[in-house]
Amino acid sequence: MPTKDDGADKEKCFELFKDIGLDEGTARNTVANKKVTTNLITVIDEAGVTGGCDRTVGNLLYTVATKYPGNALPNRPTLLQYIVTSKVKTAAQLDAALAFLAAIGPDNLDLKKFEEACGVGIEVSTEDIQNAVNEVFKENKEKILELRYRINVGELLGHVRKRLPWADAKVTKGLVDAKLVELLGPKTAADDEKPTKKKKEKPAKVEEKAAPIAAPEKLPEEELNPFLIFPNPEENFKVHTDVHFSDGSILRCCNTKELLDKHLKATGGKVLTRFPPEPNGYLHIGHAKAMFIDFGLAKDRNGGCYLRYDDTNPEAEKKEYIDHIEEIVRWMGWEPFKITYTSDYFQELYELAVELIKRGHAYVDHQTPDEVKEYREKKLNSPWRDRPISESLKLFEDMRRGLIEEGKATLRMKQDMQSDNYNMYDLIAYRIKFTPHPHAGDKWCIYPSYDYAHCTVDSLENVTHSLCTLEFETRRASYYWLLHSLGIYQPYVWEYSRLNVSNTVMSKRKLNRLVTEKWVDGWDDPRLMTLAGLRRRGMTPTSINAFVRGIGITRSDGTLISVERLEYHVREELNKTAARTMVVLNPLKVVITNLEANSVIEVDGKKWPDAQADDPSALYKIPFSNVVYIERSDFRMQDSKDYYGLAPGKSVILRYAFPIKCTEVILADDNETILEIRAEYDPSKKTKPKGVLHWVSQPSPGVDPLKMEVRLFERLFLSENPAELDNWLGDLNPNSKVIVPNAYGVSSVKEAKVGDTFQFERLGYFVVDKDSTVEKLVFNRTVTLKGSYGKGGK
User: Fold this and answer.
1) How far apart are CA 658 and CA 679, in angstroms?
2) How far apart are CA 222 and CA 211, in angstroms?
3) Which EC main class describes this enzyme (predicted)?
4) Under a CB-based contact definition with an 8 Å cutoff, are residues 643 and 632 in contact?
5) Beta strands in 302-409 (DSSP E)
6) What is the DSSP letter of 181?
7) Residue 792 CB: number of other CB atoms within 10 A?
8) Could you say which DSSP state residue 271 is in?
9) Are 441 and 467 in contact (CB under 8 A)?
10) What is the DSSP letter of 722?
């Protein structure tokens, strides 16, 4: 048999792993992982199956090798004997056994309690499982008949598992599938169709082509609870991570029973998360995902989420950013459990740093930044790394009292300069800055680093789940090393993928450059993916949260999400909430020659597609006079078969009003520019043309319609992923903002307030901008009426 030290003999390991029943792919992948190979060889040896075993036992042994809690190693041989003698024979039993052993750690094993905890000796017959399946189907019959084969089978299996936790999973699945066929019959073609939203019947009119497109069916992940993946606080006794040191030793970090009990007593077992932005810029849509996860998990578990300002750098923080963050968090629909600052804990952090020095895990260093960089690249220890503890204590006190110049000393954690993880290269814990702090004042001239403060404040605030993006995954070793070294409570850490949206940039550095160099009109420019910019553009917090929820909480990094997916969710909401109205962007004058000049006819426009004629609140009044305006693009001198606009001698319907027919075209002196159209209207409405146009009219003779400014926004960048370009500023879209200064609108919108949203028929969804004045409204286009998401878009 290969030994634990015989890593070169991979083929022997491969054959051994196949002998215990692993499939070829799993065996190959295991051999490629030195850590798992070492663990599995040890487990096979302890289990006494070096000559091989059946696949069921082998798969359980593999699970032990990859998941066994490091704090309970003395009890592993006992578990292995239960496996090879088939007393523990299912994955459910093994999971229960591992949880039990993790809870007791290295303590003596009470076999009776152990066997009760993992169902040893309990035999579940096929008849027992069938009875449980019948009960579950009886309780859920109505839902099953409604959803048919779209029912969540996993949910049904879960109900069975609650009744019979030790039932064979494959047998259970087979019986559930058979019961579905028995109840519903064979699958039909309709069962394989994707569910679609029911649409109300509408008359077949051409103008309905411009209405918002039917939404694609909701994605499965949007219908699930994304927070089910996270453990409960009382489960936080398992090994969080293995910290591998260059000398071959391994630190397996986990909470002791005493630490966990103390934590649970302090929190009452509640879930506590934290949203910890740095107050050095405006929040963007990536922060919306972080808020959804941090606040959303707390809300789902009836817990609380701290809004914690990570204000460890006194030179970067601004009150403007602090005020913005709190305001935008609440706008997004979240309510902080408490608002705290890392600086609230400066005294506790200082005392913990002193304790870290006393324990021999930190030292005062005098290397310059360049020297630190050089030594890290060469994996060399600092010359001051092994100075006496008493000396570091005195120097750290001198740093605190301001007796050492800025840049002449730092406090560094004594981790592992020869580690394969650069985040274990004796990270800086404290540096000197003679800068008053916006929140803490001038009490301190030493400030903790992010790497030191982040995890310690998580522990001090009894955070249960510390959730962050994947770029922090390599910091996990340092996070747990520090908490372990201080002997304090360790939260559960989980990393998720960043939100990357197409046609934009989201790094703070790039956003700051766009704003400070005036490429855009401030942090709330509607073209930016800052939350302030999205709000000004008319996007709502509910649609942004729906977008984030739909993406899911995954660890698949590097995925670029099309901005059209966000726009789809925005349309979904605005289609239901934005009142319809009519605006003409580029007006072309039409004179109705058979309507008297002083005559005005009022017609009713619909605010909503299904508005009823007897509901005044769902209608708005539109004046129809002998001077109306249509879009210049809705008129052509030459008609064609596929053209539904107006042309000489052709008729169209003016939306909500009457058919009109072009009788004359007035041209300018160049004989090309169209000045106005002459037309006749059909008061009887007997004419039935196909084309339907939006329009506005003079409200009274000689008075122009309501004049307004309309801003049309497109993608800020031409490329899908401008962040990867060297000359990313050269990719800016020159047509990302087009201003229409003299659009005409119906008079009913003149009382609109900042933030009010409308659907301009045939044009898109728009919101009243803050630049509006009493004299002139300004509208921003939020999104167009149609998008390609759901038709091949990501």
Assistant:
1) 12
2) 25
3) ligase
4) no
5) 304-309, 338-341, 362-365
6) H
7) 6
8) -
9) no
10) G
The CA distance from 277 to 267, in Å, is 23
Read off the pLDDT of residues 128-154 as tens digits, 9 standing for 90 and up: 899 999 999 998 888 888 888 878 777
- Identify the structural domains of the chain with CATH numbers, from first to last: 126-184 (1.10.10.2420), 237-343+455-496 (3.40.50.620), 345-450 (3.90.800.10), 578-793 (2.40.240.10)
pLDDT at residue 6 greater than cutoff 70: no
Q: What is the pLDDT of residues 219-263, one digit of tens each?
A: 444 446 889 889 999 999 888 788 889 888 888 899 999 999 999
Q: Could you give the residue numbers annotated as active site?
A: 278, 498, 508
Q: Angle, nearest 10°, between helix axes 450-460 and 346-358?
A: 110
Hey, which residues does 500 pair with through a beta bridge? 560
Helix (H) or strand (E) holding 45, with range, is helix 34-47
The arithmetic mean of pLDDT across residues 208-218, rounded, is 40
- Burial of residue 158 (CB within 10 Å: 0-12, 13-18, 19+) is exposed
Average pLDDT over residues 160-178: 84
Residue with token string 């750290």:
396
Which pLDDT band holds residue 30 (cuts at 50, 70, 90)?
confident
Q: How far apart are CA 284 and CA 291, in angstroms?
A: 11
Amino acid at 183: L
How many residues in total does the chain contain? 794
Residue 188, judged by CB atoms within 10 A of its CB (0-12, 13-18, 19+), counts as exposed
Q: Could you tell me which residue, 344 or 220, shows the higher pLDDT? A: 344
Predicted structure pTM score: 0.71
Q: How far apart are CA 303 and CA 601, in angstroms?
A: 60
Question: Which residues have a Cβ under 8 Å from the Cβ of 258 and sit 6 or more positions away?
Answer: none
Each residue of 447-461: pLDDT tens digit? Answer: 999 999 999 999 999
Say which residue the tokens 């579950």 belong to: 136
At residue 72's C-alpha, the angle toward residues 68 and 77, to 5°, is 75
Residue 462 makes CB contacts below 8 A (sequence gap 6+) with: 263, 266, 267, 272, 489
Question: How large is the average pLDDT for residues 432-450?
Answer: 92
203 phi and psi angles, rounded to 5 deg = -65, 145
Element (H, E) at 287: helix 285-300
CB 363 within 8 Å of CB 427: no
